[in-house]
Amino acid sequence: MEVFGDLNSGNCLKVKYTADHLGLSYRWHELDIMAGESRTDVFLAMSPFGQVPVVRFDDGRALGQSGAIIRFLARGSVLLPDDAFTQAEIDQWMFWEQNFHEPNVAGARFHVVYRGEPVETRDPDKVERGEAALDFMEGALKTRDFFVGAALTIADIALLGYTRLAPQGGFQVDGRKAITRWIARCEDVLGLPALH
Amino acid sequence: MEVFGDLNSGNCLKVKYTADHLGLSYRWHELDIMAGESRTDVFLAMSPFGQVPVVRFDDGRALGQSGAIIRFLARGSVLLPDDAFTQAEIDQWMFWEQNFHEPNVAGARFHVVYRGEPVETRDPDKVERGEAALDFMEGALKTRDFFVGAALTIADIALLGYTRLAPQGGFQVDGRKAITRWIARCEDVLGLPALH
User: Fold this and answer.
1) What chain A residue is nearest to B70 in terms of C-alpha separation?
2) Domain count across chain B
3) Are both A167 and A91 inside the same structural domain?
4) Which of A93, A145, B68, B154 has its CA 20 to 30 A from that of B92?
5) Domain span at residue A127?
6) pLDDT tens, B159-185?
7) Is residue A68 within 8 angstroms of chain B, CB to CB?
8) Are residues A63 and A127 in the same domain?
């Protein structure tokens, strides 16, 4: 398969983490989204959402939206246990991430990292909600090693994407001990180098 | 099962539409979220997200996040066909809805409907993105009757929730002919009275 992505994007890294952990082979196409490379006619014909990541399979079908992609790639694997209720608990975290965590944590980071604006000029509403999202994760991780069940799933991968990159957006992670330990645990399972 | 919800919330209506269409029996508990009824200790012990909707099953397990709930309720039904790639296409729209449509369309509507603020004081960023979300749906619906495949799925239900209520948030739907026809089509399948 081919992955159209941006290695600076947490959403795209979720696909990379999943594919690498499952040993899936792929060809990565690095796109410059700030130069409009995810909005060209060719790209939009493949995926009208005009966002990375997109995965194009060998039969020509394409899929966008990181959550949909990693859920599809992980089916039948240890990253997505078969039990229906366990999958629903994973979905619960994945939808929460896209609805409450990503728009705020990634949104504020976009302002700093992609637009090059000072941390002080971040949208206060995104900062407040992003901090609340991290606080909520911290609370949840105080009583568990991974978000669902006893091992890493795509719920962790979905949350790891932008939580691992949150300091680049001006969010403190070091002071959140449960998150810090969970990131190290995920990095260990996924074979990622420590980022901090 | 029991549903803890707010009939004024599009996210909660998604659960109602799904359960009613599938003929699932449930007891609905109407909560006043502005009075903090989704943030009480009892509620948070059931679902720490502190948001409606939440479904509690007869075995005592609870599930939050509308997307996770309707995906779980719809498994094995016509609303979620078995084919893995079809499910991934449904997930694609459902994640997009929670990430790009809901924070903006429902966010702006919340300001007007729940806070009672004038339409003119909506967050301009949410208005712009909400309009873009509706434009994107309009484009997609010009070439199809439902979002995935030839019949109604939970992708349509997920998008119907707040699109049907968008005018209450100051968004024009009437001028978008493809959306207007799709809403009528969904209302017909789901047996809902026309809202406008």
Assistant:
1) A88
2) 2
3) yes
4) A145
5) 84-190
6) 999 999 999 999 999 999 999 999 999
7) yes
8) no
